[in-house]
Design brief:
By secondary structure, this protein is mainly alpha-helical. The protein is built from 5 helices and no strands.
Length: 127
């Protein structure tokens, strides 16, 4: 039980470092403008594209976010500092959970925007 608590703390610490890297260290006006553009692009994709292509867009988003947070200038040094399988597991869980939560947040904004557009009838064909 104690090992599980220690691994959970490592995963939370690694998750916090990932959030800090993504939103604080790399957080410039360009990245926030990119997020706004991404939400708008996915909104119109969900409004006009078939369901299969919309799901492909979500899979590409998850893949690109995971690649961005795992491969940067410090990736090699950061990965070499992991000493045991517990730390590797905590690292992988933190990166995957950040990717899933980030995509869930983006998709929640997209579905909110799609519903707002549906209410105001700004689009004739909204799925």
């Amino acid at each position: 039980m104690r090992k599980l608590v220690i691994e959970g703390r490592r995963a939370v610490t690694s998750f916090k470092l990932t959030v800090q890297k993504f939103f604080v260290q790399d957080g410039s006006i360009d990245s926030y403008a990119f997020l706004l553009g991404l939400v708008l692009l996915l909104t119109f994709a969900f409004m006009r594209l078939p369901l299969g292509l919309s799901q492909l867009a979500c899979a590409l988003l998850a893949s690109n976010v995971f690649r961005y947070i795992t491969t940067d200038a410090l990736f090699h040094e950061e990965f070499l500092r992991l000493e045991g399988w517990q730390e590797v597991l905590a690292y992988a869980l933190a990166k995957n959970s950040f990717t899933l939560l980030f995509e869930a947040g983006v998709l929640a904004l997209v579905f909110l925007l799609v519903n707002v557009l549906k209410i105001f009838l700004l689009s004739q064909k909204v799925r």
